[in-house]
Design a protein that fits this description.
With 373 residues, the chain is of the alpha/beta class. It has 13 helices and twelve strands. Strands 2-8-7-6-5-3-4 form a seven-stranded mixed β-sheet, sandwiched between helices. It has a three-stranded antiparallel β-sheet with strand order 9-12-11. A two-stranded parallel ribbon has the order 1-10. Strand 5, helix 7 and strand 6 form a beta-alpha-beta unit. The radius of gyration is 21 Å and the shape is globular. The mean pLDDT is 96. The structure holds pyridoxal-5'-phosphate (PLP). Pyridoxal-5'-phosphate (PLP) binds next to helix 4.
Length: 373
């Protein structure tokens, strides 16, 4: 990995020590060019060949669907475009059949917790798993599961302290009880080398504006092929209508996760996201994960050497490292004035969350460490 060449693609890094990807990622110039390509195409109305502009947008979306599938190691027909992580989670929750007395299980720190208007309306019980030593133990999750558990929601990587869930073990445990696993992987994809087919999970919702480096307004949902026909689309439009009306030739009603897309998607985001997937794929997700864990380990050890109380429970398993801090907001503001970007959070007694990415260096981390008390 030629780090100097990589850093030249992120002009912002000339000025900033940016360690806040769990909040919002940094955009490389290639992703900006993706946005611009979309604007130019529309502004000049210049789709290639005899295509309409909509056909060009749709074919770019199809191409991206394949690239995303390769990136997370699933099949293209298992990917649906959505607008945000929550949109994917809702498609799953609202598309399932619920009965009074069913239950859903989720850790107390989920970013978008699964207890929804739909589950409440159906009399579904919400069972919350509490953290022990700042992590969610499989044994504690197991205690909450029974044969009425329909869905378990977990984050692959915790946005609070970066702890990583063992999805393979969780899936095995859940499937024994007939429960499905819904994963929020917004803090994982782009940061780690993920394989959602191998992990056996049922559904994965991802927003790309953090570790995938853009865009906002476009996100995606993985629905494993076994689940596609079991889930009913919770909203309908020209793209997935079952009524054979004006647009039957474009409608997708069964057999593909595309059936959950109901209208015009955020095509500008499609152009941008394709660039970031290309960028990260060229470096390789294994290489990115390795570098991220190496840098996070260096930071973790540096914080321990400074005597900090660690919120991240053990040697990091993701790029996110958190430590306790009584006055997190003034410290984050002071660092921001010095062009060092991290997050200070008052939640959970106060902590600092530091989240680098592969383009960071040990010098970035040294600069942070030397500027925290
Ligand atoms: C774990 C996690 N999921 C989801 C989101 C964002 O949700 P959405 O894409 O629905 O806005 C965040 C944002 O910080 C997050 O940390």
């Amino acid at each position: 990995m030629d780090i100097n060449k990589i850093r030249a693609d992120f002009p912002l890094l000339k000025e900033w020590v940016y360690l806040d990807n769990a909040f919002v990622g940094v955009m490389p110039k290639q992703v900006k060019e993706g946005y611009e390509e979309y604007i130019d195409l529309w502004y000049n109305f210049s789709p290639p060949g005899d295509k309409t502009i909509l056909q060009e947008w749709l074919s770019r979306a199809t191409r991206l669907r394949g690239k995303i599938a390769d990136f997370v190691k699933v099949k293209p027909e298992e990917i649906a475009f959505t607008t945000c992580t929550g949109s994917g989670l809702n498609i799953v929750v609202n598309g399932m059949e619920w009965e009074k007395g069913d239950n859903v299980v989720f850790p107390e720190w989920e970013h978008n917790a699964l207890y929804t208007n739909t589950t409440a309306r159906h009399g579904v019980e919400a069972r919350v798993v509490h953290a022990r030593n700042y992590r969610f133990e499989l044994a504690d999750i197991e205690k909450q599961i029974d044969d009425r558990t329909k869905l378990i929601q977990v984050s692959h990587v915790s946005y609070v302290n970066g702890d990583t869930m063992d999805l393979n073990a969780l899936t095995e445990m859940a499937h024994e009880h007939g429960a499905k696993i819904l994963v929020d992987a917004t803090q994982a994809v782009g940061a780690l080398d993920v394989d959602y087919r191998k992990s056996g999970v049922d559904f994965v919702a991802v927003a790309p504006y953090k570790y995938l480096m853009g865009p906002t307004g476009l996100a995606f949902l993985y629905v494993s092929e076994e689940n596609i026909d079991q889930l009913t689309p919770d909203r309908t439009g020209w793209k997935n209508q079952i009524y054979e009306g004006d647009n039957p030739e474009e409608s997708v009603s069964e057999g593909s996760a595309e059936k959950f897309e109901y209208g015009t998607i955020h095509f500008q985001g499609v152009f941008a996201l394709e660039k970031s997937i290309d960028y990260l794929s060229a470096i390789g997700t294994k290489n990115i994960e390795k570098r991220n864990l190496e840098l996070a380990g260096y930071l973790y050890n540096g914080l321990i050497a400074k005597g900090k109380g660690m919120y991240t429970p053990d040697t990091p398993t993701s790029p996110i490292v958190s430590y306790f801090e009584n006055d997190p907001l003034p410290l984050a503001a002071k660092l921001k004035d010095m062009k060092i970007k991290v997050t200070g959070r008052e939640a959970h007694g106060g902590h600092m969350r530091i989240s680098g990415h592969f383009y960071n260096t040990r010098e970035d981390i040294d600069k942070l460490l030397s500027n925290i008390p």
